[in-house]
Design brief:
This protein is α/β, with parallel strands linked by helices and about 300 residues long. The protein has a single domain, classed as NAD(P)-binding Rossmann-like Domain (Rossmann fold). It is built from ten helices and 13 strands. It is globular and about 55 Å long. It starts with a strand and ends with a helix. About 45% of the residues are buried.
């Protein structure tokens, strides 16, 4: 297939570009600069928030699918306002990319969603599946972020003539140059107590996205997480052990209240099931647990 990938230079976009090319697909990398296209991808220079400019840049091109992996996150968001630009990409950017897909003749559209669309906070002790409510109201200052995730999914599902698929990723780790790893190694990042999170190595996120492109059903969402939710402290301690660093000191989570978005992430309970992706997509994570992924990262340091 010939694929337009928006966000090809990002944390998932880079390994996803490689996975797509290795699987025999052609990749057109949508970026605001030609230098944003990874090696092996054909550049398409345009701003996803400029619909007219995007249409002009893509004039005369054809593609079979469009994949939306755009965010505006240069570092971990700490306050609600840090998510505003990414929320806009999930609402307005999605609309523009769907219009692009229709213009170039694409019949498949994959969009980046996140497990936080199930709600921020304590989601309880059981595994959450795709059948659970997603994008529901009543989440206070977090509602704008949830609405944006719901928007990107619903736009993809409702697009005329296009099979839309949403990928609900867990927290990413494993990207090249991840500053979190360096901070833990240097003893600069304490581990907040509490909080359980489902995660996904960026390489596994890429392989799941490829599987969804090739085998996913239109109108469906897939949770993309590994097999073992874990606390932030367990994750950081595993990083420290793998890199031969001192275990991070534990701190109470209330210290994060000055950064309310980050506080919500670190204190919530997010146990998410990947059974649907395994069954329907034939996908298996190469790193079933965070320990597997961290060990692999440490081996190539």
């Amino acid at each position: 297939m010939r694929i337009i990938l928006a966000g090809a230079g990002g944390a998932i976009g880079i390994p996803l570009t490689s996975a797509l090319i290795n699987a025999g697909h052609e990749v057109i990398a949508l970026s605001r600069t030609a230098s944003g296209a990874p090696v092996g991808a054909e550049p398409l220079v345009a701003d996803a928030l400029d619909r007219d400019g995007l249409q002009r840049a893509a004039a005369g091109r054809r593609a079979d699918a469009v994949i939306h992996q755009l965010t505006a996150l240069k570092k971990a968001p700490m306050r609600h306002r840090d998510m505003a630009a990414t929320n806009r990409l999930r609402v307005d950017g999605t609309a523009n990319l769907i219009a692009l897909a229709q213009e170039v003749g694409a019949t498949r559209f994959l969009t980046q969603s996140m497990i936080f669309g199930y709600g921020y906070g304590d989601l309880g002790p059981r595994l959450i599946t795709e059948d659970d409510p997603f994008g529901s109201p009543g989440h206070g200052p977090f509602q704008d972020h949830i609405n944006a995730m719901r928007s990107t999914e619903q736009q993809a599902f409702a697009a005329d003539g296009i099979e839309g698929i949403a990928l609900r990723y867990g927290i990413f780790y494993g990207a090249a140059g991840d500053p979190t790893i360096d901070q833990v190694r240097r003893g600069k990042l304490p581990a907040p107590k509490g909080g359980i999170m489902s995660r996904i190595h960026v390489g596994d996120a890429a392989s799941a996205t490829l599987a969804a492109l090739e085998r996913g059903r239109g109108g469906q969402a897939y949770n993309v997480v590994d097999d073992e939710p874990a606390s932030w402290r367990d994750f950081y301690c595993a990083v420290a052990e793998a890199y031969g660093a001192r275990a991070p000191r534990a701190v109470p989570a209330w210290l994060l209240k000055a950064t309310p978005y980050l506080h919500g992430i670190f204190t919530g309970t997010y146990r998410i099931s990947n059974a649907k992706a395994r069954t329907e997509l034939g996908w298996t994570p190469a790193y079933p647990t965070y320990r597997d992924g961290i060990r692999a990262m440490a081996e190539v340091r």
